[in-house]
UniProtKB/TrEMBL annotation:
Gene3D superfamilies given in the database record: Alpha-helical ferredoxin
Native species: Paenibacillus lignilyticus
Recorded coiled-coil stretches: none
UniProtKB keywords: 4Fe-4S, Iron, Iron-sulfur, Metal-binding, Repeat
Name by which UniProt lists this protein: (Fe-S)-binding protein
PROSITE patterns the UniProt entry points to: 4FE4S_FER_1 (PS00198), 4FE4S_FER_2 (PS51379)
Record domain 4Fe-4S ferredoxin-type: where: 26-57, 78-101
Length: 509
């Protein structure tokens, strides 16, 4: 191990444990700590290790630190707290781990313990945390008021004045950069604009409850509206429970476990009352916690069953469309039609590929074939009782994975299948699309230097795609990609867009 990790492990003085050490010992899942085999498969997957080469900045190193505290070998100090906070929480280590260590859960347990005892926060940090986690995020009405205040700032001429006189220079540079790329905010969320119930178009598949989110409903209201319309087109009735609230992800990632649990309970109650078949998320960061409500509340007998019910029904909107919607049916039918000449002839002469007892039936369509069909314009067929997509002009698109969508929700193929189904659109795989962009919730605000380094490396790969559109499936990633495009002078050549918005604009009708 690197010297920095050795020095941390040797940092205990005397035999007395701090209150933080005691809390960590009772909070950390020791079985998960011991599951780590120290194999090092996580190291190349970890953004902070790749940037620094320091063992303590890796999942293996951080687990070693946690276990050292749990075993009484070291007493956690400021250096320990710093290492836990340097982690992006992207969870790229989890798919790489042969022992299936739940690193994300260990990190949240460690941060929750730290926040109970930390003395490192300045008064304004404490105030900001209390305001955000207790005063704003749990309250939808207050979030809409915040959206209204932003809307006034953006549309009244105040923004132009602030920029003109240079007031943003009083703030850290990264704050000024984020202010420039903020989308237009809204006081009225998706329910306030279009209502809470929306019937399916055509043959009904089932009922979906849309998780609208807190940030999504203030800064990306149009994306929420487009999600409803996509689901309707694909055969889903959509219900938007009005009593839902923030998912609790930012709370969980920032050491506010108690707050996350309370928010989870309210959401479970709201969606159970709505009687939905599925719960759709269009934000990877939210969805990652929603699918783990069962773990979050596993030790609460009153809520454990409801949490399991909720987690089992939660899917990202792309996976819901691909696996259950009538969205893919139209593209498959168009593919089958275009390949009719190559279809096998089914008769009484015995079984042949693609043939069954009911006569000629098209077999599964491969991704390569579907992509070829889309390039030929086949995917733009509007018939067949399903919805498909077509671009009016030939465009090149690429995709940055949401870390939590890929690593926690394990959904990376569905977005790509949807993109490949768009007629007249060329999908270009982004090198290291599975690597974090540096957003990581509010990481780009709390750790701007590391986030900036990671983003700069990401944009090197993005530039090489020469794409017109950089798509992603998470609001934080989308803002980070917009920031990267601006920083690297690519604004006139490329646009960062949410996958839902890109597809909605190209619905074939």
């Amino acid at each position: 191990m690197a010297n920095s990790l050795v020095s941390l492990l040797e940092s205990k003085e005397g035999g007395k444990c701090s209150e933080l050490a005691t809390t960590l010992k009772s909070t950390l899942d020791y079985d998960q700590l011991t599951n780590c085999m120290r194999c090092g498969f996580c190291l190349p997957a970890c953004p902070t290790f790749r940037e620094t080469g320091i063992e303590a900045e890796s999942p293996r190193g951080r687990i070693a630190l946690m276990k050292a505290v749990a075993d009484g070998i070291m007493d956690p100090d400021y250096a320990f707290e710093t290492q836990m906070n340097h982690c992006l929480g992207c969870r790229a280590c989890e798919p790489a781990c042969p022992a299936d260590v739940k690193y994300g859960q260990l990190l949240e347990q460690a941060r929750d313990s730290i926040e109970q005892h930390t003395t490192s926060h300045r008064w304004w940090v404490k105030l900001a945390r209390k305001t955000a986690f207790e005063g704003m995020f749990p309250h939808q009405k207050r979030m809409r008021l915040l959206g209204g205040a932003l809307q006034i700032y953006q549309q009244s001429g105040l923004r132009k004045l602030v920029r003109g006189v240079g007031l943003m220079k009083l703030f850290p540079a990264h704050m000024g950069q984020m202010e420039r790329i903020l989308p237009e905010a809204s006081y009225r969320g998706v329910v306030e604009q279009i209502g809470s119930r929306h019937p399916a178009k055509g043959e009904r598949v089932g009922t979906v409850g849309l998780f609208r989110g807190c940030i999504m409903d203030v800064l990306f209201t149009e994306t929420n509206k487009h999600t409803v319309e996509l689901l309707n087109e694909a055969g889903f009735d959509v219900v938007i429970p009005e009593t839902q609230n923030c998912c609790g992800a930012l709370h969980a990632h920032s050491g506010e476990q108690a707050g996350a649990k309370e928010l989870a309970k309210r959401n479970i109650k709201a969606f159970q009352s709505a009687g939905v078949d599925w719960i759709a998320s269009n934000a990877g960061g939210c969805g990652a916690l929603l699918v783990e409500y069962d773990h979050l509340l596993h030790d609460d007998p009153q809520w454990a069953e409801g949490a399991a019910w909720f987690a089992k029904r939660t899917l990202d909107v792309s996976k819901l469309l691909v696996e259950h919607g009538r969205l893919q049916a139209a593209a498959t039918q168009a593919m089958a039609t275009s390949k009719a000449a190559a279809a096998p002839s089914c008769g009484s002469g015995g079984a042949k590929p693609g043939c069954g007892s009911g006569g000629a039936k098209p077999g599964p369509v491969s991704e390569a074939a579907a992509e070829t069909a889309a390039a030929d314009g086949c995917g733009g067929s509007c018939g067949g009782g399903g919805v498909s997509f077509a671009s009016a002009d030939k465009v090149r698109i690429t995709y940055q994975d949401s870390c939590h969508l890929r690593n926690a929700m394990r959904s990376s193929e569905a977005p790509r299948k949807l993109m490949r189904s768009v007629a007249n659109a060329e999908f270009i795989e982004l090198r290291e699309a599975d690597r974090c962009c540096g957003s990581a919730g509010i990481y780009n605000l709390t750790q701007p230097d590391m986030a900036g380094q990671i983003l700069d490396h990401k944009m090197e790969h993005v530039q090489r795609t020469d794409a017109h559109y950089l798509l992603t499936s998470n609001p934080g990633c989308l803002l980070q990609m917009k920031l990267g495009i601006e920083k690297h002078g690519m604004g006139g050549k490329m646009e960062a867009v949410h996958l839902v918005d890109f597809l909605h604009e190209r619905i074939c009708k």
